[in-house]
Write a structure and sequence with these properties.
Oligomer: single chain
Strand content: 35-45%
Distance between the termini: 39 Å
Helix content: 10-25%
Strand order of the largest sheet: 13-14-15-18-17-16
Radius of gyration: 23 Å
CATH topology of the largest domain: Thrombin, subunit H
Number of domains: 2
Largest sheet: 6 strands, antiparallel, barrel
Length: about 425
């Protein structure tokens, strides 16, 4: 989980009685019009022109949310909100994240306060926690249903479960993440989804957040606090807002006064045609503050989500004869070093093997590896676990933080993985 400040992310932590969280979201159907194997999120205009009854009825395809634009207008009435809610709720999913958390045992710190025992540093131990957020069905390919959510909803997951509108629960996998923008795509194998569930769920439509105006009515639908789906409505309070929170420094957000609560992460802000215009992600939580929630504009998120949709889903470890290596030795950077010297979190490169894949990609001694194929890495064990799903010969992007005149800047390296059999 990202560090909470006055502005907080809308995802529950450890689930306790009466404190479960989550929300919902909607996006447009992924399409591969050219047969290229790549899927995109279509605009509502393109989709309305191209869709046919035969496409909607095609076996094994998830239906689109069918909203009659003439019937659902920005009337500002309860009937208008009701129409939006009825049409898009089948596109709502919940996401349950089981992860392992590390906490510090404060009793071990008593020695530093004069109690005469303890080492003054405390001990750490791990425990399994469960948190809940929500997602947006944004499309499907030949084998998977694709769901958009926030990165902090799936961060650190050891097990993910998606719940559909009919309460059917299915195992899910992280397909790709972009922690810099707090976005992620989760996949569910179509073979794991019962036919009855496929008939009930929908893929909702993408709107255009660039067309939003201040004062425009919006609808938020979600599983706030884990009590089941609920609907709130409000207006666009402001556009192009920035907040001081990791992952949002350069993002111009939509501000709304629609009620969104803890657990709404990954949820959707909808216009009055039922088209998603934003992904609810954060809110101001402070005494005396009401109605200040923030959403990532969908027009900004669209290209990022398309890239994540087209990443390879990695759920199986490669065979030993295909195992890969990078060709360097490294050491995890401790929290103390990050705090004292401002070093980036990641893996410090101690040595680069001569004539190895890392050297060929331009990796240098002193670099700090911060991402592997777009995923954050924090230790050698973490990197080894990720590498186990990649075969020798695959090309990946490794992001390193490199010192430049006293400042660290990120450099992306194109690396071709070597075969472990050739490692000296």
């Amino acid at each position: 989980m990202k560090k909470k400040t006055l502005i907080t992310l809308l995802c529950a932590g450890v689930l306790t009685a009466g404190a479960v969280a989550g929300l919902t979201g909607f996006a447009d159907k992924g399409d591969d019009p050219k047969g290229s194997g790549e899927y995109t999120l279509l605009s509502t205009a393109e989709d309305d022109e191209d869709a046919t009854e035969e496409d909607a009825a095609e076996e094994g395809k998830v239906k689109e949310a069918e909203v009659d634009d003439a019937e659902v207008q920005a009337t500002g009435t309860i009937t208008g909100v009701e129409d939006v809610a009825r049409e898009v709720q089948p596109a709502v999913v919940s996401i349950t994240n089981k992860s392992v958390q590390e906490v510090q045992d404060l009793f071990g710190m008593y020695g530093m306060y004069g109690f005469g025992w303890g080492d003054g540093r405390g001990r750490t131990y791990t425990y399994e926690s469960e948190s809940c957020g929500s997602g947006i069905i944004i499309g499907q390919n030949d084998n998977e249903l694709l769901i958009a959510t926030n990165f902090h909803v799936v961060d650190g997951a050891t097990e993910l479960t998606v719940g559909f509108v009919d309460d059917e629960m299915c195992k899910a996998s992280v397909k790709g993440t972009d922690d810099d923008n707090d976005l992620a795509v989760v996949s569910v194998a179509l073979s794991d989804i019962p036919g009855d569930t496929l008939d009930k769920i929908k893929v909702a439509k993408i709107g255009d957040s660039d067309d939003l105006v201040v004062g425009q009515q919006v609808v938020c639908i979600g599983n706030a606090l884990g009590y089941g789906q609920s609907v709130t409505t409000g207006i666009v309070s402001a556009l192009n807002r920035t907040i001081k929170l990791e992952g949002y420094d350069n993002t111009k957000l939509i501000q709304t006064d629609a009620a969104i609560n803890g657990g709404n992460s990954g949820g959707a802000m909808l216009d009055m045609k039922g088209h998603v215009v934003g992904i609810n992600s954060a809110k101001v939580a402070s005494a005396g503050v009401e109605g200040m929630g923030y959403a990532i504009p969908i027009s900004y998120a669209k290209s990022i989500l398309e890239d994540l949709m087209n990443k390879k889903t990695r759920t199986e470890v490669v065979d030993e004869d295909q195992s890969a290596y990078i060709g360097f030795s490294g050491k995890e950077i401790s929290d103390e070093l990050t705090y004292l010297y401002g070093l980036p979190e990641g893996i410090f490169v101690q040595e680069v093997a001569a004539d190895g894949p890392a050297e060929a990609a331009g990796m240098k001694k002193g670099d700090i590896i911060v991402k592997f194929d777009g995923e954050e890495v924090s230790s050698m064990d973490d990197l080894r676990e990720k590498l186990a799903y990649y075969a020798a010969g695959e090309e990946v992007t490794v992001t390193v933080s490199r010192a430049n005149e006293g400042e660290y800047e990120n450099v992306k390296l194109d690396l071709t993985l070597g075969s472990s059999a050739d490692q000296g």
